[in-house]
Write a structure and sequence with these properties.
Elements: E1 9-13, H1 16-24, E2 31-35, E3 48-53, E4 56-70, H2 71-78, H3 87-96, E5 109-125, E6 137-140, H4 142-154, H5 168-175, H6 177-190, E7 206-210, E8 227-231, H7 232-239, E9 243-248, E10 251-256, H8 265-274, E11 278-280, H9 284-309
Parallel strand pairs: 1-3
Antiparallel strand pairs: 1-6, 2-5, 3-4, 4-5, 7-8, 9-10, 10-11
Length: about 300
């Protein structure tokens, strides 16, 4: 008999006022998401844990661990990371939450889901990820996580203007395996399932390379125009900046970085075959991403040079 796979994530009802308290106090790690003890609750370390209210997702975190604690123990251990100022307020919040526990006191036991990287997300209606009304809790499969990732990455965040400052949770979504698989298929289709540099059509070694790295600008990570189809070898060389592509209209001119003193036989061969090669980009927008990539790399090189000489 086959065992059911663990869910990729959990979506749970949460109070926005609880979330706002944490946010206003700059708390996003070792957060206690408390709920009724659920013996069959499938929550594991590393899972994505999403918050929703009124059928709209508004935040998320990553599961670090679960604990069964009394209210008093939870307050002693986590204090304001329970989402309030005092123990009395904590007990009052548990009563108001509608958790069906009799005679709630400091000795009342609760399920404590300890979260890290807690962040707000652009609000996403549940119907937009293929869910109907959810009363309290629902498990999310990889497809639902993928849908959330696309919604998050496709909605510009006016409060963030740098990929390095974007919430860690959205970086987790961008790097999730299913998201990458979806991105790969779009890129491979756009290039006729061939490497843009060498025409390799062995699908097992074809990969989708981001032009602008996710870490440099997460907001364009989901854009198919921010990708090139490459074989594994050329992808590694592109990511390692041994190969660069200079945009010219809807085409690109390949440049291979070569140091005669240290270059391997393979790299010298690549230089001979690839340097100056003109490739079809297939989209004018890809040229803009290549320009941005090259500007970012030039800026990083300049920064390193300044640091090395200081």
């Amino acid at each position: 008999m086959k065992t059911k796979p663990s869910p990729a994530g959990v979506l749970h009802h949460a109070s926005k006022s609880w979330f706002r308290y944490l946010s206003s106090n700059g708390l996003n790690d070792e957060i206690n998401f408390w709920t009724k003890v659920k013996k069959n609750l499938t929550v594991k370390e590393g899972q994505l844990f999403f918050f929703k209210e009124h059928n709209r997702i508004f935040g998320a975190g990553e599961v670090k661990r679960t604990e069964i604690l009394t209210i008093g123990e939870a307050w002693h251990k986590y204090g304001i990371r329970n989402g309030c100022d005092t123990l009395d307020e904590f007990i009052s919040n548990v009563r108001k939450s509608g958790i069906p526990l009799n005679d709630i006191t400091q000795e009342t036991a609760m399920m404590c889901i300890i979260l890290g990287n807690v962040q707000d997300l652009p609000e996403i209606p549940l119907k937009d990820i293929g869910l109907g009304h959810v009363q309290n809790l629902v498990y999310l499969d990889k497809r639902k996580i993928h849908n959330i990732a696309e919604k998050v990455l496709g909605i510009p965040d006016s409060n963030q203007n740098s990929g390095t400052n974007l919430p860690l949770i959205t970086q987790s979504l961008a790097k999730s395996r299913l998201f990458q698989e979806g991105f790969r298929n779009k890129i491979l289709d756009a290039f006729g399932r061939k490497c843009v540099l060498c025409d390799c059509d062995t699908e097992e070694v074809l990969q989708a390379s981001h032009i602008v790295d996710v870490a440099d600008d997460l907001s364009i990570a989901a854009d198919p125009d921010n990708g090139l189809c490459m074989c594994a070898n050329h992808h590694a060389m592109f990511d390692g900046n041994l190969i660069s592509i200079m945009p010219k209209g809807d085409k690109g001119i390949v440049r291979v970085r070569l140091n005669d003193n240290t270059a391997s036989v393979f790299l010298k061969k690549e230089y001979k075959e690839m340097n100056g090669k003109v490739i079809e980009l297939g989209s004018p927008k890809k040229a803009k991403f290549l320009t941005l990539r090259n500007e970012i790399l030039d800026s990083k090189r300049l920064h390193r040079k300044i640091m090395d000489s200081s």
